[in-house]
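Give me the fold.
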Amino acid sequence: MEGYLNPGSDLFEMALRSQIFVDKSGLIEKTNRCVRTLQRYICVSRPRRFGKSMGVDMLAREYYTIIRKMLGGRGFADICMIPRKIHLDKPAVVIELKWDKSAEGAIQQIKNKEYIDALKDYQGDLLLAGINYDKKTKKHSCIIEKWHL
């Protein structure tokens, strides 16, 4: 059995005609048409391993420059998202991730360790996001706080 689905091959053509193939190339255009409309909530529900995370990452990179482990103040923020020049109407986001702690503690860490200092030249809105995953209950908690520079 062949394991490659290269464009032009019979298996690739079969995948295109099957219900398993999802062409995500129009995701950005479709999403942009829905921003600030009644259709702004989009659900992309697919089984595992169908590229949902990749699609979200692709969308985020359309609007933001994403920095993982951003040096700021007295440590590293887990993720920082800075709007691209053509999307300055979007806020910058500093995200701190925790396991078995608290979303409140993650927000407090962003403030205490002064991660925001790395954005001192940024002039727009800023969101702080603290996210915690509880291994025992398998639940996430999230706090998003608007911050003024």
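The radius of gyration is 19 Å.
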